[in-house]
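Retro notes (design track)

What went well: tokenization of the new backbones is finally stable.
What didn't: we kept losing track of which sequence belonged to which structure.
Fix going forward: every design gets posted as structure first, then sequence, in one message. First example under the new rule, 196 residues:
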């Protein structure tokens, strides 16, 4: 068991090192898409399933409250939190629609969709992306493995951040680091700290 634990740490560290080489550029691009949207008075919607639902909420809470430094609240909505809305859409329509219906209701042109799926194949995340495309919203996709079906849906204004790993847990661990990088880009660009 101890060997298994150590090997999880080693694998996670190695995945993060590989990701730092592969993903620094798309993370910067994604951060700038978000910064531009926020400067334009737009908001960021986020979605995902399971651990990625947690990541979607983690991101929105850091915008709505704060990340590391004092700054004004920023507009973000996690589409994973309203159990009445999610259960009624799943019950009356289909679980595939739980995010897309919210994107159609809440998303406006220029808002950003942060779509999180380790496989890139979750149907409800794919439908959320399709709804965002129809609303002229740029998409930031956090994926893994081969990018799944999501990779083929993205356009030139969108950014895919694909973690180079086949394991869901390892991919999720890097997604959280990516989310913190995005928060730091947003904070340092919008609210640069002056040195005393
Ligand atoms: O956290 C984990 C596994 O580490 C699970 O809850 C995982 O997020 C769920 O199985 C998701 O449904 C997987 O969806 P996706 O990442 O393929 O879109
Ligand atoms: Zn997990």
């Amino acid at each position: 068991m101890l060997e298994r634990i150590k090997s999880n740490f080693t694998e996670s560290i190695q995945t993060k090192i590989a990701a730092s080489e592969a993903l620094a550029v798309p993370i910067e691009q994604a951060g700038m898409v978000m910064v531009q949207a926020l400067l334009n008075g737009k908001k960021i919607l986020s979605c995902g399933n399971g651990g990625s639902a947690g990541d979607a909420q983690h991101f929105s809470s850091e915008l709505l409250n704060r990340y590391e430094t004092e700054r004004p609240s920023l507009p973000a909505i996690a589409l994973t939190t309203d159990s009445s809305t999610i259960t009624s859409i799943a019950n009356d329509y289909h679980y595939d629609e739980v995010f897309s219906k919210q994107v159609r209701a809440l998303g406006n042109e220029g808002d950003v969709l942060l779509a999180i799926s380790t496989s890139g194949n979750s149907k409800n995340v794919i439908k959320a992306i399709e709804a965002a495309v129809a609303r002229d919203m740029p998409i930031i996709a956090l994926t893994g493995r081969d990018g799944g079906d999501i990779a083929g849906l993205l356009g030139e204004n969108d950014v895919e951040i694909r973690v180079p790993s086949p394991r869901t847990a390892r991919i999720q661990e890097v997604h959280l680091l990516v989310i913190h990088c995005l928060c730091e880009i947003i904070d340092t660009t919008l609210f640069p700290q002056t040195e005393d």
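Added context from the reviewer: Residues 33 and 57 are 19 Å apart (CA to CA).
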